[in-house]
Each structure stands twice: as structure tokens, then as C-alpha cells.
Amino acid sequence: MTVYLDIVFVENVCMNYIILLATGVLLKLKLHHIKLVLSAVLGAVYAIVSYIQIFPFASNMILKIGLSVCMVYIAYMPKGLKILLKQLVMFYLVSFVFGGCAFALLYFVKPEEIFIINGVYIGTYPVKIALLGAIVGFVFVHIAFKIVRNRLSKKGLLYDIEITLDDKKTCMKAMLDTGNQLKDPITKIPVIVVERDKLQEILPPMILNYTEQIMKGTWQETEENICYKERFRIIPFSSIGKQNGMLLGFKVDKVTVITDIDEIQNENVIVCIYNQRLSKTNAYSALIGLDMLEGREENELVTDIKI
Question: Which of 121-130, 202-211, 220-229 has the highest mean predicted lDDT (pLDDT)?
Fold first, then answer.
């Protein structure tokens, strides 16, 4: 079988470029196509050298790893060893997926005309099949990483919390909202936001159903609910589409945040009643800020909450 080195070189440049491009896209890097081409050419030159065995040690594993490091460095110019290792791992992962997809297609098309010579795949297969495999691999990797990233990010922000008021408790899922630095303007006590329905176990309906009246001062006190009067707080907030909003809050005895490591107990917490859904999928029913995980700090007043 006649092998044309120029075709092998062009094919390897194209494949290397697509792999480097996909790696950069998945890592959300600022890409320079000239650097990607230079890196792809370096990989293609190595493939030719390995095939014709100019140097007997060209197929050495350490040399291959060194080549990968050089290709990644040329393509992305990482600042620091940690970033370089991250990019290198992603480069290998994308290469494995792309190679698997490409050669799976080649196997089904013309398996008898594909050979491995000195670690280089040689055959009469069309370049478009290899490129199609790379495109399929990129789609698979992109979708898979998007799903995994979304699940991990959401899971890492969700916590179980327990709210205690007198002798009553209620539990729910809460999302850590790093933009939630809402505090009581006077006492600077941290504030969490909870859906109204999740507070039915600790607050009577005469409070949950009349939050607007309580804030307006038209709420009728009775012997049964007057004990909650001293716990009420009016918390100002702002969000997208609503400036200078108000929420009715009440001071609870304790809020416990349950993590994978321990249970963080927070006293001096105000719970604000939210009359709508916080999550369209009901994944969580409360919003907590970083103060609930790190302990309350005397920060400057910030009354901005994303809901």
C-alpha cells in the first residue's frame, strides 16, 4: 500500500487542530488560531517522525507526554503549573473521545484498509470520515460536560436546613445564593428567604396569610398571635424588576445548615416569608447567604437579593 506523507501530515494537522479547538472551547479559553495551528503542526510533525522512524526513541512514552505538554503550552499559554495540568487533562480526555468516535466510524466504513504503523493510523480512508468523527466527538463531549457541570454546580449549592421556632421545627432544601447578602438594616442580623408553604409547621395561618396586612399595620392582634409581634421585622430588598421592595421577616431561635462535614448552627437569624416559588423545579425552597456557612460577620449594609 502506498502511503503519502503529505496526506498523513494534513490529516494529523486537521485532527490536532479540532482537538485543540474543542479543548479550548470546553475550558472557555480565549483562543488564538495561529497558536492552535502551530501546536497542531507540531503534533503532525511528531506523527511523521514516528512513522518513518527517524529517531528510534520517537515512540517513547515520556516523549509523547512531553509532546502533549508542549502542544498544550503553545496552544493556550497557561499561566502556572496548575492551569497547565488542568488543560493537559482536558486535552487527553477530548483526544480519547475524538479518537474513539473517529475510528469507530472508520471501522464501520473500511476496517480492512486501516493499519497501525509505529503508532500512527494509516489507511485509504477519506479525510471527511475522520473529520466527521471529530465533530461527533465534540458534540458528545460538549453535551456531556454541560450536563455534568450543571448537575455538579447545582448540587454543590444545595443544603438541607432546619428552622427552629420555640419547640417547632421545619426542614427544607436551601440554595446558597452568593449574591444574597440581605441583612436587617438595624441589627445587621443575616436574613434568609423561605417559601411561605414551608413555614406552615412553625407559623400559624393567621400570620402566613396576612403578611401584607402585617407590614401595613392593619393586622388585628389576638391573644393567640400577639406572642409573635416582637419577632416581626420589615426587611427592604431589591431585585431585578423590583426596586425598594419589602419582605416580612421574623426572628427565629435557630437555623441549622447541614453539610457533608458537619452541622452549622446559626442563632440570630431572620427568616423572610416569600409568597411565590423560588425554584421552578422545586429543587429548593429557601435562599441562604454565605453568612450561614461562615458565621455572621459585621459587614457593611447590603440589601440586595436575587429572587
Answer: 202-211
